[in-house]
Sequence to fold (331 residues):
Amino acid sequence: MNGVQKNFHLIFRKKFKMKNVPFGNKIENKCNKKLPSSNMMIYFYNKFILLQIFSIIIILFASSTVWAEENSEPIRFGLTPAIIHNQYGLLIDWREYLQKKLRRPVEFVSRDSYRETIDLIKQKKIDFAWVSDYPYVYLEDKRLARLLVTPLYQGRPYYCSYLIVPSSDLTTKSLLQLKGKIFAYADPYSNSGHLVPRYQLQQAGEDPNRFFRKTFFTWGHRRIVEAVAQGLVDAGSLDSFVWDTLSIIQPDLTNQTRIVAKSPEYGFPPIVARRNVNRADSAAMQQALLDMANDPEGAKLLKRLNLSGFAPGDAKLYDGVRKMMHTMADL
Fold:
């Protein structure tokens, strides 16, 4: 008789109020009930085991059904050139982290242009998005999205625009020295990679549409670094955070470029919520992001993102960008 059968045998002794009789000996019935035969005991034993298994399956199925009914709809999170979104391993880990904290499926939706992300918000195909200052101000002005959180870079909610040239160019000292050159912009809806250099030229009395011999969009801040490093353009303007992050994870690329000038500081590219996203979902996402710095796993992810944490969004951080957009008739 094995251990399980022995325990089952003890259950029967208790059930039928039997005295202790050594296993293997003839069972003596000390009550008026007739004991089951040996075959019957095996039958009941198997039924007992099957019943336990069936009960466990029912409990697990019921739990998973409730979870599926309550959380089947995924949260869709848009990613844009505001971050280096080709760090696929990092993004997978961050998505899994958010899923655990939100107890909801999370989908990252990556696009190469801010316009595509803006359209996804308009079409209600994404719930949240990490965008640049320019798209945020535009979306807020059109009442399509609201500010959720602002990332903290080196402990502060700011970044700037970098003007870069090839490292072999040791003579260029300012934007105005690039007249008649080939220049790379990041995106028409980029603050640091389009609005800032055009605004600076306009303030210097130059026509941004005629100043350079040729311009084109790379549709990504990283691609500006690549274009400048390879000598495809004479200069380009991009997000300081992207260049700084690349200098850590891919220094061989940034070492082929040189920073000529840095713009004034602006509010860091924020994370926004679509205007009509469920308030409970919005609050949950905001709290999950704010809590990352105080969570061991979250803190590790922040380090990989090259961020210090997230802070509640403050619209005043973006007043400078709003002013430039009005000056350039972009609003």
